[in-house]
Predict the structure.
Amino acid sequence: MSSADTEEQHEQTAAEVDTAPELDTAPEVDAARQQVLDELTAALGEAIVESHIENGDLWVRVRAQDWRRAAEACKSIGFVYFDFLSGLDWMPSAPNPEDAETLSVEPEADADEAPDAEEAAEAEAEHDAEPQPSEAGAVAAFETAEDEPAEGWVTGVAGGDTRFQVFARLYSIRRHLGVTLKADLDDETPAVASIHDIYYGAEWHERETWEMYGFAFEGHPDLRHIYLPGEFEGFPLRKDFPLLAREVKPWPGIVDVEDVPPAEEARQDAAINAAQEGSEGAEGGS
């Protein structure tokens, strides 16, 4: 084949590429979830702050003051099954202690109480080197990843404008799909209306979220501890909860054991007595 033929063939191939129909790269529309979103938008209007449909799932972020109304709207269009409710704290976690300076919560070393000059110098150096808490809270000081903002929080699917979010997962048995509701909460006083009387299973989930994150659920009939002792201080699932502080102040329940409620104590005593009487009767019969 001559060089002229080769050149002509290359030109023909290039022309075919230029005239080839462009492939449609637009994302496939999830019609079922888009319909759900359209129905919620019609019911809630501006209460919906942001939404996202991807990978066969739907997220809807609503204003905190419309949290209860959003739950009612979901139930009215068939999302009658309550899956779970919990909280989110988008404050970045500190890396491992060997990779970053962490905020010390141990008692400050006092040079005046050191028994000798060498220990006094070490105590003074430790005090001078202690990092100070940032404006966002008493958390570890470390560099953020390249794709994270220098200020604020990375808040995941459907976005967010605050550190704390409450979210709930609801499911429609008829439609065979679920929806995740989210709402931004105030950083200082996170609170939202309770939905325990809309979805009865939410009562215990709200109690757990209040216990672990400190989110208040207005209208909840019985916000009290489930897992932790009654006098427990702090919220363990917040990113700034100082675990090391428990070396200084032991976890409640390890030192100070709470009394068993009288009714439960009476029930346990009755069960023990009945078991002992049954055992003695069996021994006498033998």
User: Anything to note?
Assistant: Confidence is low (pLDDT under 50) at residues 96-115, 126-146.
